[in-house]
């Protein structure tokens, strides 16, 4: 790598770290100290925990590991270790106060910037150190999305505002498209910022399948509700029905009935549900019940990725549905530019070669696959990023949402959560096997 290329890499890392920090600050500066230390939902950490955790991970990975510098606050490592304390128990910990947390993350950042300026970027160190920058940027952006989720759980007045996303482009789209059967390359060995579970690239055979052109809309979801979707046990899996009963599920999270219409609380603004928008805040179980009601099923993870990346004209897998270019505002609703998904049928420039829309951005899409490692998986930089979660407890979510930053979203990116979770920005689309029903 030439010195100029090294300088470009350092400049990009510095710029992306700065951009992530502006977002973290915007999410925390709008609230007073009481709102920062309070637990808005037992499913979420106090916002100030996320902020100091971002700083602590940065100290551990960039300042200590990559930079080889002495520890700044090893006394607080334990408090901000996500595996030591459940989210529900974090408010009771002796956490840094908001002022102290802000000061701490700033002090860490100053050291980080020195490391970015001087760390060697040659040979093996290039790959390792460049990845460490990318990992840190993604980590902060992931927690920024987590903090955005916490904002949505707040019960008081709105503090976040953003313009509405674009409308549908007005063309009548086919409901579904046929993705041809055959092999495709899943995962990646070349994306520099890809995390361990996205690697390595490998061939997967996928039989032909139909996939919905757009995510399921609120209007479609209301038809399922009106047709007794939440009352008909036969539409639900056994685990799904048990959870529906235990949690008394009746509608997506944040929906409430007002006479004969449905309202939705969107970051503190309560307004009628918009039928043209993708449904958001549904669990895997609700998505699966809808799919069965529609005579379809959820896509598998391999099907979803093939729909998003496979180019039938070349047989190659691309970085994104629209090609290899980084996401721009014309391609997808990412990066918290908006606080809600765009209408189904928006973003024509983001369509896949087969015309599938909105695979990236808008809403995370539940797929019917458990979290697992690809063949040849090796955990890095530490086992706790994903390997410790492998197994049947977690279902995958793909494609990112309006609150996911482009730095933390790729065609190969894999997210996961418990199938009962719905405080996340989760929606879905359906698939089906040609000629067959839901079980093909
Ligand atoms: C990949 C989104 C499931 O938030 O639990 C953040 C990302 N890992 N800090 C999560 C993560 C460590 C992770 N998800
Ligand atoms: Fe984390």
Task: Give structural notes.
The chain has 440 residues and is of the alpha+beta class. It has nine helices and 14 strands. The chain is globular, with a radius of gyration of 22 Å. Bound molecules: N,N,N-trimethyl-histidine and fe (iii) ion. Residues 139, 142, 146, 415-416 line the site of N,N,N-trimethyl-histidine. N,N,N-trimethyl-histidine (AVJ) is lined by residues 139, 142, 146, 415-416.
Task: Summarize the helices and strands and which ones pair or pack.
Layout: H1 3-29, H2 33-37, H3 47-66, H4 98-118, H5 123-153, E1 176-179, E2 182-186, E3 202-206, E4 209-212, H6 218-226, H7 238-246, E5 255-258, E6 261-266, E7 269-272, H8 284-293, H9 301-309, E8 310-311, E9 316-317, E10 364-371, E11 391-398, E12 414-417, E13 426-427, E14 431-432
Parallel strand pairs: 10-13
Antiparallel strand pairs: 1-4, 2-3, 4-14, 5-6, 6-7, 8-9, 10-11, 11-12
Helix pairs in contact: 1-5, 3-4, 3-5, 7-8
The structure holds N,N,N-trimethyl-histidine (AVJ) and fe (iii) ion (FE).
Fe (iii) ion is lined by residues 53, 57, 82, 139, 143.
Question: What is the compact description of this entry?
Answer:
InterPro entries: CTDL_fold, DinB-like, DinB/YfiT-like, EgtB, EgtB_Actinobacteria, Sulfatase_Mod_Factor_Kinase, SUMF_dom, SUMF_sf. It catalyses: gamma-L-glutamyl-L-cysteine + hercynine + O2 = gamma-L-glutamyl-hercynylcysteine S-oxide + H2O. The strands form five sheets. Strands 12-11-10-13 form a four-stranded mixed beta sheet. Strands 1-4-14 form a three-stranded antiparallel beta sheet, covered by helices on one side. It has a three-stranded antiparallel beta sheet with strand order 5-6-7, with no helix packed on it.
């Amino acid at each position: 790598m030439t010195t100029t290329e090294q300088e470009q890499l350092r400049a990009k890392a510095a710029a992306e770290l700065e951009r992530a920090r502006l977002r973290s600050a915007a999410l925390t500066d709008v609230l007073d100290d009481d709102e920062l230390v309070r637990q808005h939902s037992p499913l979420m950490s106090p916002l100030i925990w996320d902020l100091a955790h971002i700083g602590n991970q940065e100290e551990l990975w960039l300042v200590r590991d990559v930079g080889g510098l002495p520890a700044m606050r090893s006394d607080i490592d334990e408090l901000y270790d996500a595996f030591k304390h459940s989210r529900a128990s974090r408010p009771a910990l002796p956490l840094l106060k908001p002022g102290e947390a802000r000061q701490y993350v700033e002090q860490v950042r100053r050291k980080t910037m020195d490391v970015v300026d001087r760390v060697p970027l040659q040979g093996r160190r290039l790959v390792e150190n460049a990845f460490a920058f990318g990992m840190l940027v993604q980590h902060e952006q992931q927690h920024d999305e987590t903090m955005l989720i916490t904002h949505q759980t707040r019960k008081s007045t709105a503090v976040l505002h953003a313009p509405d996303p674009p409308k549908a482009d007005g063309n009548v789209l086919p409901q579904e498209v046929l993705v041809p059967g055959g092999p495709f390359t899943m995962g990646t060995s070349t994306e520099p910022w890809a995390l361990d579970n996205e690697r390595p690239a490998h061939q997967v055979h996928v039989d032909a399948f139909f996939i919905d052109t757009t995510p399921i809309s609120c209007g479609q979801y209301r038809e399922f509700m009106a047709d007794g979707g939440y009352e008909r046990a036969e539409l639900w899996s056994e685990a799904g029905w048990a959870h529906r009963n235990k949690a008394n599920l009746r509608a997506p999270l944040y929906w409430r009935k007002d006479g004969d219409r449905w309202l939705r609380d969107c970051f503190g603004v309560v307004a009628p549900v918009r039928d043209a928008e993708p449904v958001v805040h549904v669990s895997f179980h609700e998505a699966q019940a809808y799919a069965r009601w529609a005579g379809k099923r959820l896509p598998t993870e391999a099907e979803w990725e093939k729909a998003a990346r496979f180019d039938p004209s070349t047989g190659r897998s691309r970085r994104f549905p629209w090609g290899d270019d980084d996401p721009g505002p014309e391609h997808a609703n990412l990066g918290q530019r908006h606080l809600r998904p765009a209408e189904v049928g928006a973003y024509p420039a983001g369509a896949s070669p087969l015309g599938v829309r909105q695979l990236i951005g808008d809403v995370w899409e539940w797929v019917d696959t458990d979290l697992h490692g690809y063949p040849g998986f090796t955990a890095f930089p530490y086992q706790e990023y994903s390997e410790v979660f492998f197994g049947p407890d977690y279902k995958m979510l793909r494609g990112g949402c309006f609150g996911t930053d482009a730095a933390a979203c790729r065609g190969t990116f894999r997210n996961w959560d418990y199938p009962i979770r719905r405080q996340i920005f989760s929606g879905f689309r359906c698939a089906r096997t040609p000629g067959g029903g839901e079980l093909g």
